[in-house]
User: Which sequence fits this backbone?
């Protein structure tokens, strides 16, 4: 984000901050946030820090590597971080390690206003407060689709047809984009596509993996078919690199995070030809299914277990304030699909809203899903590069997962 | 030296070594033979903005009781070392029985993560180490024969790759190698192939990682050799000149023998360093093409669910690997020492 934008954001926040100090400032305790780094979370963290009054401590460590440090930073006693901002996949690690506390008593005391929609309840206890929804949906270039004379694709099969036409007509050499970097991103694309094919990851009710089936093979084949229309370097392209390709005007269709689409539609980083024609559409389906080949995500905040009651109360109050209607203003409104009362969707958020309407499944919140995600990220690239068959890749994934799950005590 | 004064003399460094080297390694060893308890899974009902779902979660109370009973976890002995993520004993023996020939066996062996990582790690080590030594020596001789006035700046420039943080250095190279970067485009023009992409090809990616490795560590070899060159006996050199030895013969018969012990030292350090190759793989986003033992440790620890025992086992296997690699050099040094 540029300097101009950051200052603009800060000044907007400063204004709202002073205007709604009803339950702020918090007068005692400590707030220390760890979380991912994108505009929506930056806004939340900034407002929460502003809520901490004189004589209190407030800090935030926002980084793309937050998952690598949050468990360690919350395991000590007292914990370094009093709150981790997480998503539905990463809360599992915090619950597995038992480092976050139930919020019910704090809600009773300080948070009666929090709507039920925002409460993440696990086994009857509220463990997190969600503030935004996210999903990967289609992003397309309206001008290019018009040029080849096709409607906005609704399925991956239509995407392939459009890609072939764009290439044939010499408009773009590699018209498709996607965060296919080997590792977490590629695994996420598999999870999306596999759900779109109606696949189940495990044998019902057990941690026994079961992806070496027809849906798994079709999923891999679709990923490979799509990759043939991508920049040859696609295995090194994460969301940032894919966005850069988009802004450079090299890509016409891609599956991209709702939280990252706004950046593609602003005036920065690309020609008017690109940003004016960048549009978002609902997530795609595949293979005649009705469930979108995408996953729904929420982002929310937690409170650490190993901290004093005073710090927990301070953290709770500051973050409850930062994710209340006080957060919403002209600047922040378009940053995300907020789950906060008073939110009015901007055009950029239509993709994610459509995803919720279409019955997109949430990313699985299972204690062993992280192990499968790692195994997927390590083994799909071999197939995409043509080194082995789809069946071999799937059996490698199952074997890698099983070894990891045995080590972690999920399987015998 | 008296035994007593020797004892007091080495005590501080012994304590430091014990604290910072021996105990951490012991703790890694301990972690690698224990794994987590069998997880007690219970069915739970989760609700959130997208509705309610029945799913599973870890039973924290039952787990807390298990942790209390056995704080270190479950003892599995060498179980983790032998599982599929590491030495994969049962998978390897199955492959051996099923494979038609040696070629097919090795082909499928490289599909197992540990062997895939060790294949790249060893190739990298044995290509980069000799090239580093040769290149470092050549630069040292060249700088040593340059005019005195420009030697200072020359040394500084030659050292730059070593001074730059590995992550930054490799990122710079990575961007230059991009299909739209300066080296990437130049290669496309030279090879007359507009689709040529270093990042998409496994052999080119391996080559680039090794080029980076040599580029980054040649300055180390250079500066050590350069220091060594200052101690070459000038009388011997002059005598050789009087005897009519050419420049090459002087290097071959006077300088190189003089620098041999230094070469052993550089080889030792470089073997250790190169066996732990890590940064370029991360910066080059090369994991689809090349993995190393250190990268495997990083990968185990950076997933959403950390695999501590697996990472500890790989760490210990790395230590064993380094020990095996260094053994010939150490044996040689020991022999030289006792011969005197």
Assistant:
């Amino acid at each position: 984000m540029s300097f101009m934008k950051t200052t603009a954001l800060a000044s907007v926040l400063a204004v709202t901050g002073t205007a709604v100090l009803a339950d702020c400032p918090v007068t005692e305790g400590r707030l220390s946030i760890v979380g991912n780094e994108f505009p929506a979370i930056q806004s939340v963290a900034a407002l929460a820090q502003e809520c901490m009054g004189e004589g209190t401590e407030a800090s935030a460590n926002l980084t793309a590597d937050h998952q690598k440090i949050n468990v360690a930073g919350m395991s000590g006693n007292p914990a370094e971080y009093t709150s981790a901002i997480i998503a539905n996949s990463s809360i599992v690690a915090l619950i597995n390690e038992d480092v976050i506390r139930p919020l019910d008593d704090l809600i009773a005391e300080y948070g009666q206003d929090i709507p039920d929609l925002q409460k993440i309840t696990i086994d009857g206890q509220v463990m997190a407060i969600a503030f935004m929804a996210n999903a990967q949906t289609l992003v397309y270039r309206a001008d290019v689709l018009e040029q080849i004379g096709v409607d906005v694709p609704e399925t991956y099969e239509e995407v392939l047809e459009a890609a072939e036409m764009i290439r044939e007509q010499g408009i773009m050499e590699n018209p498709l984009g996607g965060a296919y970097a080997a590792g977490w991103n590629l695994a996420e694309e598999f999870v999306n596509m596999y759900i779109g094919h109606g696949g189940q990851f495990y044998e019902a009710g057990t941690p026994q993996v079961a992806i070496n089936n027809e849906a798994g093979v079709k999923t891999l084949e679709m990923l490979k078919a799509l990759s043939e229309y991508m920049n040859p370097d696609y295995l090194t392209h994460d969301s940032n690199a894919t966005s850069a390709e988009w802004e450079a005007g090299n890509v016409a269709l891609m599956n991209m995070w709702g939280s990252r689409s706004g950046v593609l539609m602003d005036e920065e980083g690309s020609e008017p030809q690109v940003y004016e024609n960048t549009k978002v559409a609902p997530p795609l389906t595949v293979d005649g299914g009705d469930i979108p080949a995408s996953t729904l995500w929420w982002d929310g905040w937690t409170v650490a277990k190993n901290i004093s009651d005073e710090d927990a109360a301070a953290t709770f109050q500051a973050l409850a304030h930062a994710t209340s209607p006080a957060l919403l203003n002209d600047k922040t409104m378009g940053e995300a699909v907020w789950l906060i009362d008073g939110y009015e969707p901007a055009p950029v958020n239509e993709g994610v809203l459509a995803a919720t309407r279409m019955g997109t499944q949430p990313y699985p919140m299972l204690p062993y899903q992280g192990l499968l995600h790692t195994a997927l990220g390590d083994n799909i690239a071999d197939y995409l590069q043509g080194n082995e068959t789809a069946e071999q890749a799937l059996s490698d994934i199952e074997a890698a997962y099983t070894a990891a799950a045995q080590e972690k005590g999920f399987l015998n | 030296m008296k035994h007593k004064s020797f004892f007091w003399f080495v005590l501080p460094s012994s304590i430091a070594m014990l604290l910072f080297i021996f105990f951490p390694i012991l703790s890694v060893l301990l972690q690698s033979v224990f794994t987590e308890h069998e997880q007690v899974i219970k069915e739970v009902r989760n609700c959130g903005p997208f509705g309610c779902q029945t799913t599973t979660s870890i039973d924290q109370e039952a787990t807390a009781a298990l942790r209390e009973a056995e704080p270190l976890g479950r003892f599995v002995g060498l179980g983790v070392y032998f599982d599929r993520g590491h030495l994969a004993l049962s998978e390897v023996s199955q492959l051996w029985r099923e494979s038609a020939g040696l070629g097919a066996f090795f082909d499928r062996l490289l599909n197992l993560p540990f062997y895939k990582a060790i294949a790249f790690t060893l190739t990298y080590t044995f290509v980069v180490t000799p090239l580093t030594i040769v290149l470092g020596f050549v630069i040292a001789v060249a700088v040593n024969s340059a005019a005195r006035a420009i030697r200072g700046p020359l040394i500084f420039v030659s050292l730059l790759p070593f001074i730059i943080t590995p992550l930054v250095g490799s990122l710079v190279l990575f961007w230059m190698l991009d299909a739209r970067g300066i080296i990437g485009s130049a290669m496309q023009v030279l090879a007359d192939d507009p689709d040529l992409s270093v990042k998409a090809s496994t052999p080119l990616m391996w080559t680039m990682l090794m080029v980076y490795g040599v580029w980054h560590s040649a300055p180390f070899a250079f500066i050590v050799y350069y220091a060594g060159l200052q101690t070459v006996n000038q009388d011997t050199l002059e005598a050789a000149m009087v005897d009519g030895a050419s420049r090459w013969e002087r290097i071959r018969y006077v300088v190189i023998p003089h620098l041999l012990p230094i070469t052993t030292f550089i080889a030792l350090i470089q073997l250790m360093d190169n066996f732990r190759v890590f940064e370029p793989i991360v910066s080059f986003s090369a994991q689809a093409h090349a993995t190393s033992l250190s990268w495997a440790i990083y990968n185990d620890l950076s997933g959403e669910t950390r695999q501590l025992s697996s990472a500890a086992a790989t760490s210990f296997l790395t230590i064993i690997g380094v020990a095996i690699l260094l053994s010939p050099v150490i044996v040689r040094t020991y022999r030289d020492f006792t011969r005197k």
User: Anything to note?
Assistant: The longest strand of chain B covers residues 41-48. Chain B touches chain A through 54 residues (CB under 8 Å).
